[in-house]
UniProtKB/TrEMBL annotation:
This is Chlorophyllase. GO terms for molecular function: chlorophyllase activity. InterPro entries: AB_hydrolase_fold (IPR029058), Chlorophyllase-like (IPR017395). PANTHER family: CHLOROPHYLLASE-1, CHLOROPHYLLASE-2, CHLOROPLASTIC. It comes from Dipteronia sinensis. It holds the Pfam family Chlorophyllase. One of its GO terms (biological process) is chlorophyll catabolic process. It comes from the Eukaryota. Signal peptide: none annotated.
Amino acid sequence: MAAVVEAKPNESAAELLVFNLGSHTTTVETSNKSSPPKPMFIVSPIEQGSYPVILFFPDTCISNNAYSQLFQHISSHGFIVVSPQLYSCMPPCGNNEVDFAAQVTNWLPKGLKSNLPENVEADLNKLVLSGHSRGGTIAFALSLGYACKTRLDQFSALVAVDPVGGTTKCTELNPSILSNNPFNLSFPVTVIGTGLGGVTKCIIPCAPESANHEKFYERSKAPKAHFVTKEYGHMVVLDDSSSNLRSWVMSKCMCAKGKGPREAMRRTVGGIAVAFLKDLFSGNLKNGVFMKIVQDPSVAPAVLDDVDFVQARNYVDFGLPVLWGKIQGRPFHDLYSIN
């Protein structure tokens, strides 16, 4: 069943346009056509065209449709967002969760098309990994080769939203994701953290400092970027009100929230992701909208702190992306300044 959401860009907004809805009208697809390995929540533009694909993994116990407002923001700027429900509540043991993620990735080339509007094509040469909290960990793990059957050279970028590594023996991957130092990734990474993720509201903080966004950013290789939404908590990126009771409880009750409106948080996360990916794929990462946000974080709807962007220093730093960029005809040599 599909639902259509019309784009309503706010032309008078003082912020950059990436922080507002884009020009594309989006549709939401929740059916299970072409037998996907896991239930899907797919948000796509309806206008004819070929669009990059973002594979987004939800947090523990969170429904994939609880991010619908964030997904619609991103998709309205010309992206297809695919979010699989890898499990219903608690993560499976060991690395099975990453294997599920790999199964979804392998399904995309043949299965995604039937879940998209007519005349809309998925550009899988621009396949982005993403996720929130535990889902961010799975995005990193998939890109690091934790799954048995997946091609690492098919990914173009990674955007992690307040990623959290396993904090108990039951939730650890094998080996622990944060035992990798550094992460040997072959593509650019953006990490968006929260300032209040480490604040305890219930028994333990939702994003403890020992396994939070800073640890993932530190281990990532250049080119990489880091943003922290100073006044927001771990779950504020979710919808204002989720139809899934478990997601609603997690969103409202489990984590420190902060005082700002959820909309500002979602617009900030969505805008950073859109600017990063659009400039990356257009070969303008060092001079485009993304760099404007890095240089002047005050343009974002939410207060940003600890903004950092480390560019690749030379061709050795690029590694595989240079070769892969040439194969795809994408000018990776133009993406970053060469010192």
